[in-house]
Amino acid sequence: VRWSVPTDWRVSTTLTQGTQSMRQVRLSGFMAGTRVVTETRELAGATLRVSSLDTSRGDTAATADAVAAAVTRIVPPKRRHDITVNLVGMNDAFAALSTSALPRGAMSYRTPSMSPGVERARLVLAAVQDDDPDIDAATAWYTQGFAAWRAMTMIRPLIEPADLARMLDETTVRYGDSPFRRVPNARVAAEFGTSPDLRRMAAARGELFASLLDARIREATSGTASLQDALARMPDDPDDSGAALMQAVAAVGGGDIGPIYRRYIVDGELLQLPR
Question: What is the pTM of this model?
């Protein structure tokens, strides 16, 4: 890959110069122009850059703050990497939003009439749950799925309840419509790098399982504890995510989750949340 721009242009991209995989080229974000504005946030072990091509977008800094807060709280320093987020404004009169999660960032296209909170929420999710086939596939249900659940708890103040419901609905559809929805975790681990749909299903399965556990803990403790309390007891990178999670949930009064962990995560039985 070789690219160049006029000297007075600025570039914001996840695409690096030189020889690299076709996947990285295909799943890259590239933006350049004379009016690119960039907000930078230094995270422990990584740098976040949020750039806008439209200087009239006053929410670039707020987006950078939201994404930085989520990464700092959810992604362990060991698993962080530089993130490049590009914000593109569209001039259409109707409300529209399109965001794409990339291995090292995200691209987002938004019309002025679309809520910036929804865009921010989607970018938070993309930053903590990027599409990376090189992660530990056997624990993707935890590293990706539980990261998404934690991000959703941070997103709630940013968006309207209807938008939150729509995002949760997208998760259940992504899981329920996947041809992989009933595969055991051993198959997820074996085929993870070959199928983006399988990776998305594994993350959705983990997010739904987290919701199930949260409700179970709240019920068992009469609302005095939640899944957040259990996760606070978890090490950043447990050797065995399942065993560590079972121990943490039991420690906060959530009881023995071994049977449902084996049922939904290990064996891959279809997970349906209670109404």
Answer: 0.87
